[in-house]
Amino acid sequence: MKEQLVALQTTALEALQGLETLGQLGDWKVQYLGKKGELTGMLRGMGALSAEERPVVGALVNDVRAALEAAYEEKEALLKKAEREKRLAEESVDVTLPGRAVKLGSEHPLNIVIRDIEDIFLGLGFQVADGPEVEYDYYNFEAMNVPKNHPARDMQDTFYINEDVLMRTQTSPMQARVLRATAEKAKAEGRQHPDPVRVIVPGRVYRRDDDDATHSHAFMQIEGLVVDRGIRMSDLKGTLLMFARQIFGPEVEIRMRPSYFPFTEPSTEVDVTCFNCGGSGCRTCKQTGWIEILGAGMVHPYVLEEQGYDSEEFTGFAFGMGVERVAMRRYGIEDIRHFYQNDVRLMSHFKSRM
Amino acid sequence: MKISYNWLREYIEIDDLTPQELGARLTEGGIPVEVFTELNQGVTGVVVGHVVETRQHENADKLRVCTINAGTGDHLQIVCGAPNVAPGQKVPVAVVGAELPGDFKIKKAKLRGVESQGMLCSAKELGMDVKLLPKEQTEGLYILPEDAPVGHDIADYLLMNDTVLELELTPNRSDALNYRGVAYEVAAILDRPMKMKEEYTAHGNGSSPVTVKIESDNCTKYAAQVVQNVTVSESPLWLQAKLLAVGVRPINNVVDVTNFVMFELGQPLHAFDLSKVAQDTIIVRQAQDGETHVTLDGVERTLDASMLVIADPEKVIGLAGVMGGENSEVDAATKNIVLESAYFDPGTTRKTGKALGLFSEAQKRFEKGMIDQGMITNALLRAAELIAELAGGEVVGGPVEVVKKGAEPHVLDLRHERVNEVLGTSITEDEMVAVLKRLGFEVSGFKVDGAHRITVPTRRPDMVREVDLIEEVARIYGYDKIPSTLPSGNYVQGQLTPEQRLRRTAREVLINAGLNEVVTYSFTNVGLLEPLGLHTEATLTNQVKLFNPMSEDRSALRTHLLPSLVEVVQYNRNRRTNDLALFEIGRVFSPEPGVDTPVTERVRIAGIMTGNYGALGVGEKGRPVDFFAVKGVVETLLDGIGITDVLFVRAAQAGLHPGRTAKIVKRHEGELLELGVIGGLHPEAEEACDLSPTYYFELHMEALLTAKERSELVVPPLPKFPSIERDIALLVDIDTPAGDLLDTIRIAGGDLLVSVRIFDFYQGAQVPAGKKSLAYGLVYRSSERTLTDEEVTERHNRVLEALKAGHHAELRA
Ligand SMILES: [Zn+2]
Fold first, then answer.
1. B652 vs B659: CA distance, rounded Å
2. Which CATH number describes the domain made up of A109-353?
């Protein structure tokens, strides 16, 4: 019987060696260690042994069982590990394949520029105002110091609805509207002087221009207006310098050149360092090193007085810029019509939310 | 305004500046100069030559062989093809080694076997602006005056070595529409004196034969000067060259002088043939309605009473400030002339020119209202003197002047401290006074109430109030010297209005939902409504119309965003992009007036979707856009802007599919507030516009703001007790809205029901005809205790009963 046990152990361990799956291992366990297994079978045969032999063989049976169980556990660990590795290998993916992303839309580039500019001026204490696109001649022209027959009406060919109503040619009429509303509020509250004003007005304006690469019968403007006691032209310069550096980069400078707008005096064109050449002169800037970005000036006393402000007590500055122009420079878009064609192949470049 | 550098140099010392440097200084001072044109386009080595003799070329009918004296010693033999070459002429000769514009170098050559030692030139070959030259000077060789000195450099002789600066004048600086004004500007900028004669006083002998009458308030001054016995002929070269440089066509010595003086001194002048003026009497009056007049260009004009004319007792002889008349024109036979120098009302001049479609250099100056009234008589005398000199005439008598209203120099007060208050500078009083003097303004030696008295010369009528003077000080002092500061005073961080915030949020949500934002034009026309089936709605066809549209296509203001968005879809589909999800936040317009606005403008958030939509992995097919994809976007949008408990109610709407359209509404203060609409386009519209299935939604800004008004978010406490879930599966009639069952469940579920959602829906083969299957998931919970199974079952049975009773719902296992 001893020999049988030793032989069983040897056979069992040899069989174990050749096993490859956990399933086979289970079968092996049933065959050798199970309740109906070979080892149990031998244990049953012990009844035929003598009293002396029984404990000896019993001990031997236990040894064999322990050896087989140890071998089993070892093998089980080994097979489990192999199987895990196999599964991991099977489960690996090609990480370079595209993801099932939530598709982002895009913001219109003109609105990106407007939002950026709004944010800069919000930080400087400006409010944002919206105004009507269909406007009275009074606000668009007369309140802005452009009476009927004024030569400056040459500069702006206007879409009219009727004699007194037109498509606004500029966002400037909102200067008059904001001043009027502020002055009327003070009057209603019985105060002598109206509140100061800090406001920007983004919006669409219209000119009777044929649409081409640089002209559009409709385009976006942003107007700015600050009215308070003691506002100086140097404040205009400092504000615009801060604005220009935030929007075009910290290294840019601005240059003011005398100009003419009926509703500002003094008036100025404002140039920034050429983005293309950094100021050394190139084709983009016609060798001047500067690019014109906006018109500005000190609010004409007439504009203040017309809306009920004392022009001795209050001074102010105003500025206006074309949004398309800024967007064209910023994004290298060379044809203004692209903004209104809405080709999704172009727009998909504006996915980034930063 | 074109300015010749050489001509300007006669009035102010600028030899130390190149034309470009001068341009840069003017630009800094407020008159931008970006275009500089060299009159000499590259002519070197071309000289004046004398055609000694010509003979026919032996081998070519059209060529002639010329013997030329070009002052180079031996005569030159030059082959020439111009038909107008003749012995005795003076012509431009490009000798061997000369260069012509376009890098054209002259070499010795053989033409059909005959040697040619150079080339005889036309005006065009010399790079001249031939548009302004008379025909006889542009066809064939450019024939020079008989007294042209042989051998003289042609560029020098024709005064071509000059640069023309193009001044971009703003409307307020019409004072610089002439050399005198520019010279004053340069003098102020460079701080140096002028050297221009500005006063002319010499009168002729005897008394003037003319009488002048002003019968209209639109002329405040009229001066007339007679010059007799003139010989009308071509102007001398220097005068022609000056006019050519500023882009004016030379005509004859009388007309050219009037133009010359207009450019020199700024005063438009006109010359009448005195023999054609009846009774030697000039009358300035309003035209009569229907009166006709043939202007210098040979066109008969019908006038009206708003127009100002120059007339004699019998007829109109010119349109004041706009154009002279054919019946009083100076021509080759003219002997006696009367010159006109006057001030005409700017608005009248402008309107007359506009009404008749005329625009002359004179009109340009009158209509700006920037004529220096102090120069009217000076300019007249300057012109008379020059005509007498160049046309051999005799100035007769003095100027006949009628003055309705004199022009006095403006006197304005200027406070030194106000200058610095407005500019933020620290300009000293002395600096300020110095700048004003540089501008030629007179500064009083004393102050009144702390202000200097400034006398502004009549050439600067744009100086109206103190702030105009402050701008002049700033301009000449230099804008570059103004410091950079920030406004002082109290202010707080700016804030967006609720509408502006809502717009930003809506934009953000829709972009994150995968929609591309578009911006489209507001101009449209009523015809665009029809293919979309929108033309049946009076509120949509009632568009605000433009009085002066540029095209019929864009002649009115849009009442709906759908046509604009469909146009964008078509544009992109034509470029093979078929999956489109777009939105626009834009305005629509209707004619009724708003609060202090001429029409009503409303903001709409509108979207359009077609093709496939949604996230796609590799190898996954797109999911075609359907009603629920678009509804999902709208629901996400409303969630994002914080508007909850919104209902979608089946509705019919023009242009939309009757079975796939819903109004988006919300209960607000006991009423149903309509937030917008969502739907598939009507198949007929899709067909008319060549679209595949397309869905549209639109939300109304004003309604969204109303719905949003009182939504303060208070977060309820997290549940303390467990919840119990029950599902219901049932069959109902196919046209029972699933949403109605939701309402029934909510009511019957009462306080214990915390949420209910639809989690399954089916209609088709697996259920009986005319029925659909729906499944609802209900969650019961109490905030006060743990619910027992019995409690929930009892409540749930109530729900089931309500469904059966209210909707004939049939429970499924
Ligand atoms: Zn550059």
1. 8
2. 3.30.930.10
